[in-house]
Amino acid sequence: MIASTFTLSIVLILTLRLFQWLAAYQEAVVDFIWCRSHATKLQTLTVKRKELHREQQSVSAQDQYARWTKLNRQISQLDTEITNVTSQLVKQRQSGIQVLSRLRLLLFTIPLTVLKFWKGKLPVFSLPSDLFPHMLKGIMSQGWAAAALGPIRYVLKGPVQVTEMHIETTVCLAIWLWALTRVIDTTEFVVRNLCN
Amino acid sequence: MDLTVERNLHSLITSTTHKWIFVGGKGGVGKTTSSCSIAIQMALAQPNKQFLLISTDPAHNLSDAFGEKFGKDARKVTGMDNLSCMEIDPSAALKDMNDMAVAQNNQSEGLGDLLQGGALADLTGSIPGIDEALSFMEVMKHIKRQEEGEGERFDTVIFDTAPTGHTLRFLQLPQTLSQLLDKFGEIAGKFGPMLNSLAGGAQNMDIMGKMNELKGNVEKIKQQFTDPDLTTFVCVCISEFLSLYETERLIQELISYDMDVNSIIVNQLLFAEYDNEHNCRRCQARWKMQKKYLDQIDELYEDFHVVKMPLCAGEIRGLKNLKKFSQFLDKEYNPESDNKVIYELEEQN
C-alpha cells in the first residue's frame, strides 16, 4: 500500500514535470490531433491563391482586362475562405489546448493534490532521530501543518517535556514530494544555466 | 429561347415594382446625366406615377443638368408633371443637427434624440457606416416630410449618389452593431445601472438603447434595399481601365451588401467607325481602345444590362436634350441610324 502510493505520487510528479518541459511542443500536439484537417485545407487554399496570384501577375490588366478581373474575383473569394479557415483553425487550436489542460488537471493535478491531502502523513521512510532539531522532526513526520499548528499547541498545552522514545524520525509523503519537487527544480535551474 | 440580356434599361424603365433606384459611379463618367435620363424615361413611360430624383452629392449638379434651380424642397421639373427634383447635402444636415444637439443638450425628436447631445457623434468616427446610416436616415426623413407637405407620395425615388465615399456602406451596419451591442451587453450586465448613474443627470446616456434603435432602423431599410424587386443599383462608367476597375470594385461591394446590381451604363463612347461627320485619327485610336474594353465588359458582365451611350457633340443640358439623349436607355443606340442625334443636341442658353 505504502509502496504503491509512493510510486504513484512519484509518477504523477514526474509526468506533470514532463508536461511542463514539453509545453513548447503542446501546440504541435494540438495541431496534430485537432487541427490537421483545417491546416491541410488552409495549406491547399494558400497554395491555390499563390498560383492564381502568379497567373494574374503574368497577365496585363489593360490588355486582358476580363481575364485579369476574373482572376481577381477568384483571389478575393479565396481570401475570404482563407480568413474563415484561419479563424476556424484558431478556434480549434484553442479548443484543443483547453481540452489538454482539462485532461492534465483531471488525470494528474487533481489526483496528486488529493493524494497529498489524503495520504500526506503516510510515512515513506525513516531517518536517524538525532539528525534534526525537534521542530523539524515534527514537520518531517507530519507535514507543513505541524509548523503552522505548533504555536497553537504551545498556547493550549504549554511547553511539552520531550522524552525521546524513538531512535528514528519518519518522513511523511507530503514532505518527501516537496523535497523531490525542490530537487527537480534546482537540477533544472543548474542545467539551464550551464547550457546557457 | 434567347437568353441574351437586353442592352437597354427598358425593363427597369417600365418596372412597376421598383421603389428605390441608385445611380452611382466615380466622378466625371456621366452619373448625373444618367440619373436624369433614367428619371425622365421612367416619368414618360409611367405618366400616372410620381417620381423623385434626389441628389445627395454635396457638389450638386441637378440644377445645372436641367437648367433650373432646385433646392432642399422637392420641386417639379418644368415641363414634366410627374417628375420632381431635390438637392440635399445629408452630411451638412447631420452636422447642423449635431451642433444643435451639442449646443442645446436637449432631447429633440428623431435624429436629435438619437444624437444624445453629440455623444453618438463621437462614435461616428469609429464605427464604419454610422455616418452614412445617419445621413441616409436624414434623407429618408426629408423625403417623408416632402410627401406630407405636398400631399402626394413618390412611387419611385432615384438617387444620384456622390462619387466619393460609400453611400451604401451602412448596409453592413446591423452586423457591426450586433457585435458591438453584444459586447456592450456583457459590460452593462456586469456593471448594471452604475453606468447610467456615472453618466449623470436626467438625460440617460442610453447609448445601447439608441444603438439598438439605429440597428432596427437600418435593418428595416436593409430589408427593402436587398429586395431586387424594390431596389436596384445602376453603375455608370466609361470605357477606360480605371473606370472599369472602380466599377468592378463597386459591383463587388454592392454584391457583398446583397444589393441587386444588374445594369451598367457605359458613357462617352465614340463609335468612330460609324461617324461620317467626324473621323479623325485621334477618335479612331480612342475608339479602338474603347472597343477593346467594351469586349472585355461584354465578357465579364454577360448577365448584366450593358447599355452603350454615345459621346455627344455638346453637353447634355436642359430637359429637351436630356429627353433626346435618354431615349437610348430605353431603346439601345444604333450608331448607324441614330448617329445624327449626336449633332442635334443643341446647347442650352
UniProtKB/TrEMBL annotation, chain A:
A GO molecular function held by the record: protein-membrane adaptor activity
Subcellular location: Endoplasmic reticulum membrane; Golgi apparatus membrane
Quaternary context: Component of the Golgi to ER traffic (GET) complex, which is composed of GET1, GET2 and GET3. Within the complex, GET1 and GET2 form a heterotetramer which is stabilized by phosphatidylinositol binding and which binds to the GET3 homodimer.
Stored HAMAP family: Get1
Residues on Lumenal side: 1-2
Membrane topology: Multi-pass membrane protein
Gene of this entry: GET1
Pfam families: CHD5
Cytoplasmic topological domain: 188-196
Signal peptide: 1-24
Species annotation: Lachancea fermentati (Zygosaccharomyces fermentati)
Record-annotated membrane-spanning stretches: none
Keywords on record: Coiled coil, Endoplasmic reticulum, ER-Golgi transport, Golgi apparatus, Membrane, Signal, Transmembrane, Transmembrane helix, Transport
Name of the protein described by the UniProt record: Golgi to ER traffic protein 1
From TrEMBL, chain B:
Coiled coil: none
Signal peptide: none
InterPro entries linked: ArsA/GET3_ATPase-like, ATPase_ArsA/GET3, ATPase_ArsA/GET3_euk, P-loop_NTPase
Active-site feature positions: D57
Entry keyword Aminoacyl-tRNA synthetase: no
One GO BP: tail-anchored membrane protein insertion into ER membrane
A single Gene Ontology CC term: GET complex
Main location: cytoplasm
Ligand binding (ATP): K26, G27, G28, V29, G30, K31, T32, T33, E240, N267
Keyword Transmembrane attached: no
Domain ArsA/GET3 Anion-transporting ATPase-like: 18-330
Molecular functions per Gene Ontology: ATP binding; ATP hydrolysis activity; metal ion binding
Family statement drawn from the similarity comment of this UniProt entry: Belongs to the arsA ATPase family.
Subunit structure: Homodimer. Component of the Golgi to ER traffic (GET) complex, which is composed of GET1, GET2 and GET3. Within the complex, GET1 and GET2 form a heterotetramer which is stabilized by phosphatidylinositol binding and which binds to the GET3 homodimer. Interacts with the chloride channel protein GEF1.
PANTHER family recorded: ARSENICAL PUMP-DRIVING ATPASE ARSENITE-TRANSLOCATING ATPASE, ATPASE GET3
Function as written in the Swiss-Prot or TrEMBL entry: ATPase required for the post-translational delivery of tail-anchored (TA) proteins to the endoplasmic reticulum. Recognizes and selectively binds the transmembrane domain of TA proteins in the cytosol. This complex then targets to the endoplasmic reticulum by membrane-bound receptors GET1 and GET2, where the tail-anchored protein is released for insertion. This process is regulated by ATP binding and hydrolysis. ATP binding drives the homodimer towards the closed dimer state, facilitating recognition of newly synthesized TA membrane proteins. ATP hydrolysis is required for insertion.
Full protein name: LAFE_0E09296g1_1
